[in-house]
Every structure is written in C-alpha cells, then in structure tokens.
Amino acid sequence: MENENKFDVIVVGAGPSGTTAAYVLAKAGLEVALLERGAYPGTKNIFGGVLFTTVLNRIIPNFWEEAPVERHMKGIQISLLSENNGVSIGVQSEDHNKPPYNNSFTVSRAKFDQWYASKAEEAGAFLLTNTVVDDLLWDGNKVVGVKARGEEGELYADVVIVAEGTNSLLTQKAGLRGKYVPRQVSLGMKEIIELPREVIEERFQLSGNEGVELKYLAGDATKGIWGGGNIYTNLESLSVVLWLAVKPLTEQRVKVTELMERFKEHPMVRNYIRGGKTIEYQAHLAPDGGYDFTPRYYTNGLLVVGDAARFLNASLHYEGTNFAMASGEAAAEAVIEAKRRGDFSEKSLSHYQKLLNKSFVMKDLKRYRKMNRFAEDNPEFFDAYFKTITQMAVDYFTINELPKRRQEWKMLKKAWLALNYFNAHELSKLHHQNKLSRAFNRAFPLVRFLWQCLKGAWAFL
Amino acid sequence: MNIDDKLALNLFHVDSIPHIEVNSEICRQCPHWLCTYTCPVENYKVENDNVVFNWEGCLECGTCNIVCDQGAVTWNYPRGGFGISYRFG
Questions:
Q1: Interface test with B, best of A167, A177, A274 (most B CBs within 10 A)
Q2: Any bridge partners for residue A245, and if so which?
Q3: Residue ranges per domain, chain B?
C-alpha cells in the first residue's frame, strides 16, 4: 500500500466540517488531502444564513479580522404568521456588538468556504478541487482510501473522513445508513436579494456591520407545513429562506416553488424585500429528525462529520455550522490520537464518539430529539393553533367600544369557535387522532389547545 | 418571478451527460408523482401522462432521490466542476 497516493487522512468535502478537520490535522503535522467536487470550495454549499463560530474562534482566534464575514448578528426577531395577522418577539443586545459578536455572523459561503479552505492549505493540507469521490476503497472490513472519478483515480489513506453534506452517498455505500425517507430531511430554498447598504440599514435599524435575523415559524409562512422562513441581513443583500419538512410536503402536495413566492408576498415579509433584485436562487437539503436518525458515524478507517453525520440542531436555534465544525475538530483529534497509537480500527476511532458525547453536539441532539416527532404528530399546531394564537393577540388589542372585560371574553369565545371548527372539519389533518380524543377535543378545544402548547413548549424550548 | 427567471440568474456549467437518470417506464406507473411538487426548480414536469425530466438547472439538492419511493431515480453528483456553481452561497 505504500505509494505516492497515500496520505495520512483523506477528507471528502471542503465545507465547514471537512475543512475544520483538515485544518486541525494539518496543524498537527499530518498529511491531509482535502477533496472538493466543486471548482472551488463553496460553489456547492448552502446554509440557512448564520455561521456560528465558537469553534472557529478557538482554532483561528479573531478570525473576523481576516475572514470575509458580512454582518454580525446583534439580534433576532421571531414571528408567528397567519394570513393577515402576525405576532413577534424580538431579542437584541448591545453586548453582541463587540467581540466575539455572540459568535454569529452572516457570510457568503462561496467566499467564506474558499477562504477557510485556503487557511487549511496554509496549514499544510493538500486541496484537490473538481474531484468527485464515487466510492470508498476497502481492505476487508477496513476503509483504506477513496475512488475518485476521472484522472485522480484511487487515493489511499489511513483514515477517510466523510464530510460530504446531507446527501452523503458514501455513508450509504459503506452501509452506515439506509436510503433516506422523507421524514429525515427538510428542503431549504433561498434567494439572495440585492439591496443598497443604506436601505438595509434603514429598514432593519442597523448601523455599521450590525445585522439581524428575522425568523418566521411555520404558520402561514409555510401554509401550515412544519418549517419556516427566515430573512438574514448581509452587507448589501438579504438572504430570504423558506425551509420545509419534506414529509408533510409529500402529504399536502403543494408546489414548493409556489410556497416560496407566496412567502415573499406575505404582508409581514414583502416590505422587507421591497425593491430588491434577486441575484441568485438556491436549494439544499438539511438533515431533520435529530438524534434518532444519526447514522453510525465511525468504523474501521472511517469517520463521518457534519451534515453527512446528520449533526444539526433543528430547533428554534437552528444551528448547523457550529455542529459541523465541532464534529470536524473532534474527528481530527480522534485521528491524531489514533495516529499516535498507530491503530485506526473502529475501537481506536471510537474516541471520536467520546469527544462528541462530551461536547454540545450530542447533548443538544439528544435534548431536541422529541421535537421532530412532536411536529410530525401535531400538524394542527402549525396551522390552526398558530392562527388562533395570532388572532387572540390581535383581538386583545382591538379598539372598539366594548368594555375590555367583554372584549376578552369575546376573544376567548372566538378562539373556542375557531378551534372547534378546526377539530370538526379539518379531518384530513387530524387523521392521526383516534375517535375518543377527537370527541374530547371538540368538547374542550381550549383545554386541548393549552395542553398542546405546553407540550410543544416542552419539546421545542 | 417564475422559476426560469430565477435559474437564469445562476451560474451553471452544464455537462452533456445527465448526472440523474430517471426511468420513465417506472414513472408511468407511479401513483403520486411527488417529484413534480417537490423539485425546487421544477425539473420534473407532467407531459402526456408521464413525467418528463430535465437535468439542466438542477441545484443538486437531492429531494427527488428521497421523495421517489418507486426506484425510478438514480441520483449522483455531476462530474467535478460541473453543475451548479453558487457565487453567493
């Protein structure tokens, strides 16, 4: 096996997880090949919109001084939408305007991933672009390299780190996972909408490099499908995202392209993007379902990191890039340890598992494991319940000549009627409930509503 | 804004060989044609009682590979450097 195509480690995919692994390994003096199927790192990479940088700031301190970041996130606004109504809460802090800027930045991935990979190259990693990996090379039950398409041919290494992203074909070929089913993924669509810098700063009340994120939870933004919308501020553009869980999408049979247009035209969204010019349209899958759907992420001579290992916190926090980087770093450390021992077996590489278990990666994945199930089992939450919540808020602040006490009763009665109507008529969305609970829900819709809200808060927060 | 206008904004290096193969004989028998709803670039269209697939404009998201439970889609990455090339990401 000793030949010129042999490296210590081959990393497949130059996104945040793969590049982090390559960077840490190269810094430790290992020979690393970083393979990327795009013409340069970043050409295939999409994310929700915010890069979370705790790990990055640890391995490249004060990275923001040289990295192509756009704006740091000083705040977030979360909204529930129905067709005409909206309820929002906003959180922001002046403390986020100074280093480390709450460890969250908007970036353009085409620029950032390229910069980050160049840092790995500076550290000594060998970057190979335009390189698609078609399969793993095995020696018995041990991975010994990769088979690249075209002229690169076969490349050998002690360890292969798979950082291919959600669609990872290698994990499937290696038998670490089965074929994905719709409930394991969500589809994100994103438009980059160009606007002058001053307009963005005026519209979102920002100065300098401050940025904000607007988050729209399911409800009318997604036509009641579990998912959500986002607007992120870049320096001279907005990232407008709509993401949808694929399983309810397949049940409701709506065209995703129409949902995207619909979201952009919502009364609570359209004013933010008014006058903007779309300059790019993107789509990507994200892993969904959390801890219960993670594949086996290590075997003899192989480690899986980032989205390929399905490390993503799909809760209200929606963090992925930090999970990617933390898993890349943990994988690199496990390989360095294995190299020291000269043993790349599954047992030796299980150090990766230990490092992940100790970090926020596994702890958060476990914590939110109930969430996806809850979303799946309670579709009414994102439809009738969000409508009711926003309507109640609007009714509470309605100006009329009724005494407030009577207006409040009216608000509750309206909510009761709306929920009762939903429980009686939207049977297609309630097929998961048995007859008994349906009868109970019709008799006491508000009780059910409150109980579900508590359960939802427990699963989500 | 329709999907063709959106795709005209993107940078593609379209390969002459499709990276996704669709077996239209299986599609003819398919009970749901979910790909025609879920493809974010509408690459799957219903024509003459069957699904017609076009790989140009593909964003390589992989949704069709997951919603197709009939085994009609053979999904792969395009050749190195080909396919979508995002400029903003």
A1: A167
A2: A186
A3: 3-84
- The reply to whether B83 touches chain A by the CB within 8 Å rule is yes
Q: Does A38 touch chain B (CB under 8 A)?
A: yes
Angle at A283 between CA A277 and CA A286, to 5 degrees: 135
Q: What is the mean pLDDT of residues A276-299?
A: 92
CATH 3.30.420.60 fits B3-84, yes or no: no
So what's the pLDDT on residue A1?
45
Distance CA A263, CA A266 (A): 5
Query: Is B63 an interface residue toward A (CB < 8 Å)?
Result: yes
Contact B42 A257 (CB under 8 A): yes
Q: Where in chain A is the domain with CATH 3.50.50.60?
A: 6-68+108-178+295-368
Cβ atoms of residues A141 and A300 within 8 Å: yes
Q: Are A361 and A312 in contact, with CB atoms under 8 Å apart? A: no
Closest residue on chain B to A152 (Cα): B80
For residue A376, give both structure tokens: 């799946």
The CATH code for residues A6-68+108-178+295-368 is: 3.50.50.60
Residue A442, token pair as written in the block: 């019709």
Which residue's entry shows tokens 């890349």? A328
Residue B43: pLDDT over 80: yes
| Helical packing angle, A445-460 and A369-377, nearest 10° | 150
Please state the pTM of the whole predicted model.
0.94
Whether residue B34 lies within 8 A of chain A, CB to CB, comes out as: yes
Residue B45 amino acid letter: K
The closest alpha carbon to A180, from A34, A340, A308, A338, belongs to A308
pLDDT in tens, A198-256: 999 999 999 999 999 999 998 899 998 999 999 999 999 999 999 999 999 998 889 99
Q: Using an 8 Å Cβ cutoff, are A194 and A276 in contact? A: yes
Q: What is the ipTM of this complex?
A: 0.97
Q: Under DSSP, is residue A29 helix (H, G, I), strand (E, B) or coil? A: coil
